Task: inverse folding
């Protein structure tokens, strides 16, 4: 993927920047992203359940209930 | 042959676009005059020409709002006057565009050409959002369906346009004329020269403008377009925002002024007095658009103090800094500008009822003050506390709860992005926008402290939500751009979440199909409104078709939407004194005394609930006879006939 040429270049701090993230920080980032994903999916499931009554919405709603049940 | 309905809708769209361009021109001219050419270039360098135009658009709305208010109070809001002002604005715009044509080409052409090189993830998010906004624009062509809009906001505007005069309008609420009307007065002007579609499309344009403002604020604070794109997405994915695009609610349009005030404050250290005057005017208009926008005041003050401190620190020597007295003087000037911008709305209330802050404060001995639903919601009235657990669960409730009067939730991205803020609050990208987050938090705290009863109205907090969107988006962009590298799982989870949200927005915009059907005259208004029995559409249609000039209709016990009733009938449904009588006799609206009152005051028709017809007949005096002339789905129209 090509970088957006209008954006300022990423800051190159010093040699420290070449070091990978600590393990705990990597874990935190993955957990944060998982949290984002869960919140979005649960939200859409609830919205579907409340607002529409199509077969897809019902199916989605069941999936959400299953996930929440687990 | 093009159907008449299609012609009317297209005419409304054209008028709304014409009106928007006139507002833009009317705003940009004083803007450049007030801050100067050099300062305009400075604004352009920080937020681009889009930012400058956006600020001009908001200023134009503020100025024209005051013009329409004055004209309507005088009673001369005539169509030819509105056309004249708009045409002058349009001509002005053409002249300005002609004079700046070379500069415009020089600025716009490279921007358009550079689009060929954009293949980033954020570019595709932008393209998706533009597509979703277009679908929302199609939905805005539909007749409004939000209860509040049909009950009050649109009715006030429609009746003002009909009578060319802004009055108390006892049949709306009954204090319609006392609302802060900075937004509705534009609708009244549009009703004067066009139709309902012009109003809904204009409301949609104002919602787009709010998105644009949030993008500009993000760019100003972070100098990153990626942050701007994500902030706009966070806002757009809030159903409290996107479902009100073109729905005839004042919240989206009113929030523009609040965001503009923050943007002007960001530029204050560079632009000096011009910026602070404009910030003051914008916050005054925000209040004149919605009194609940007062929650932004404390946040704006704190935001201003931090911006000034930051600006002072930027100078290495004390001599180079401006003295405290300078900043205080300028702040006072800004405060005066805010009061002056809000003043017309207070003067309007003073002229109508003698109490500038009615119905909340003053005139409390009147019958209509008792009818104001929001009277007891403020802490100042009820002194109720709020539990901490309720307070902490508020974000979750606003996202996941469902209640009819909420009129939409906030985006799940608000709490979804929150962990990234905790991890990246020290990042160089996030640090400059921490003040936006703090201002948003302070606004919400003010809301919690002063407005009790846990009102779940996210639409009241659009400005703080916009501020939160900026800081949360900056945190996510900082995570994606982490110089140490981000785990691939994290990157893909973030992107897939955003993709799901975009698909969801696409799904939520499926009503665009109905917009196209309505435009093509495949569906009529009746098809849309008749299934909604509580609206009283059938009754209103009958009245519009059968009530003759000079005949009066009593609507005081009808709970249908006055918006559907012809304004010609509405202006005769009752004076303030008559509504006071109705209010005092509200427990027995069908008693013999009521019928004598109707007969004595020349009412020809009375609208009652269908199941109350027998009660109405039982309470009838001997001198009056009732005839059922129309049976609707829920209500009936009774004709009063004198007997003997």
Result:
């Amino acid at each position: 993927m090509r970088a957006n040429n209008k954006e300022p270049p990423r800051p190159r701090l010093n040699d420290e920047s070449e070091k990978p993230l600590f393990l705990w920080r990597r874990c935190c980032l993955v957990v944060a992203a998982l949290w984002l994903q869960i919140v979005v999916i649960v939200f859409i499931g609830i919205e579907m359940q409340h607002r529409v009554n199509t077969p897809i919405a019902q199916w989605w709603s069941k999936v959400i209930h299953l996930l929440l049940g687990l | 042959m093009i159907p008449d309905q299609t012609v009317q809708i297209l005419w409304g769209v054209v008028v709304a676009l014409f009106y928007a361009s006139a507002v833009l021109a009317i705003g940009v001219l004083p803007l450049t005059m007030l801050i100067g050419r050099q300062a305009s270039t400075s604004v352009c360098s920080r937020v681009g020409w889009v930012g400058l135009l956006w600020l001009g658009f908001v200023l134009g709305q503020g100025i024209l709002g005051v013009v329409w208010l004055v004209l309507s109070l005088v009673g001369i809001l005539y169509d030819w006057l509105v056309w004249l002002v708009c045409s002058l604005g349009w001509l002005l715009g053409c002249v300005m565009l002609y004079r700046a044509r070379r500069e415009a080409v020089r600025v716009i052409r490279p921007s358009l050409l550079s689009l060929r090189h954009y293949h980033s993830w954020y570019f595709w998010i932008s393209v998706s959002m533009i597509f979703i906004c277009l679908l929302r624009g199609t939905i805005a062509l539909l007749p409004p369906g939000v209860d509040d809009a049909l009950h009050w906001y649109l009715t006030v505007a429609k009746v003002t346009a009909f009578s060319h005069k802004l009055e108390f309008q006892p049949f709306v609420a009954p204090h319609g004329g006392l609302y802060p009307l900075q937004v509705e007065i534009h609708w009244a002007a549009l009703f004067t020269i066009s139709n309902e579609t012009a109003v809904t499309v204009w409301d949609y344009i104002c919602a787009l403008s709010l998105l644009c403002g949030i993008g500009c604020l993000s760019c100003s604070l972070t100098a990153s377009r990626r942050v701007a794109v994500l902030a706009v997405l966070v806002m757009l994915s809030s159903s409290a925002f996107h479902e009100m695009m073109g729905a005839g609610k004042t919240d989206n349009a009113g929030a523009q002024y609040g965001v503009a005030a923050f943007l002007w404050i960001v530029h204050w250290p560079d632009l000096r007095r011009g910026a602070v005057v404009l910030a003051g005017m914008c916050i005054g208009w925000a209040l004149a658009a919605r009194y609940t926008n007062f929650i932004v005041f404390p946040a704006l003050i704190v935001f201003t103090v931090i911006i000034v401190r930051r600006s002072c620190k930027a100078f290495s020597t004390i001599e180079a800094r401006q003295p405290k007295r300078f900043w205080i003087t300028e702040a006072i000037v800004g405060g005066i500008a805010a009061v002056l911008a809000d003043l017309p709305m207070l003067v309007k209330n003073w002229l109508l009822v003698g109490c500038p802050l009615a119905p909340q404060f003053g005139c409390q001995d009147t019958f209509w003050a008792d009818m104001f639903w929001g009277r007891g919601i403020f802490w100042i009235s009820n002194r109720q506390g709020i539990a901490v657990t309720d307070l902490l669960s508020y974000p979750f409730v606003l996202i996941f709860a469902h209640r009819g009067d909420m009129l939409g939730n906030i985006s799940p991205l608000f709490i979804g992005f929150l962990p990234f803020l905790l991890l990246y609050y020290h990042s160089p990208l996030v640090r400059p926008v921490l003040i936006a987050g703090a201002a948003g938090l302070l606004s919400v705290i003010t809301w919690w402290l002063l407005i009790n009863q846990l009102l779940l109205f996210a639409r009241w907090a659009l400005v703080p939500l916009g501020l939160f969107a900026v800081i949360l988006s900056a945190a996510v962009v900082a995570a994606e751009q982490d110089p140490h590298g981000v785990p691939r799982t994290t990157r893909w989870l973030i992107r897939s979440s955003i993709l799901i949200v975009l698909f969801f927005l696409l799904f939520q915009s499926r009503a665009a199909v109905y917009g196209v059907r309505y435009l093509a005259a495949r569906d009529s208004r009746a098809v849309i409104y008749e299934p909604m029995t509580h609206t009283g559409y059938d009754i209103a249609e009958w009245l519009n078709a059968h009530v003759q000039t000079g005949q009066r209709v009593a609507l005081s016990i009808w709970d249908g939407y006055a918006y559907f009733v012809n304004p010609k009938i509405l202006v005769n449904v009752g004076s303030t004194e008559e509504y006071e009588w109705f209010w005092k006799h509200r427990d027995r609206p069908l008693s013999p005394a009521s019928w004598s009152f109707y007969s004595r005051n020349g009412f020809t028709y009375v609208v009652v609930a269908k199941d109350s017809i027998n009660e109405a007949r039982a309470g009838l005096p001997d001198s009056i006879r009732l005839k059922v002339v129309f049976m609707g789905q829920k209500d009936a129209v009774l004709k009063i006939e004198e007997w003997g």
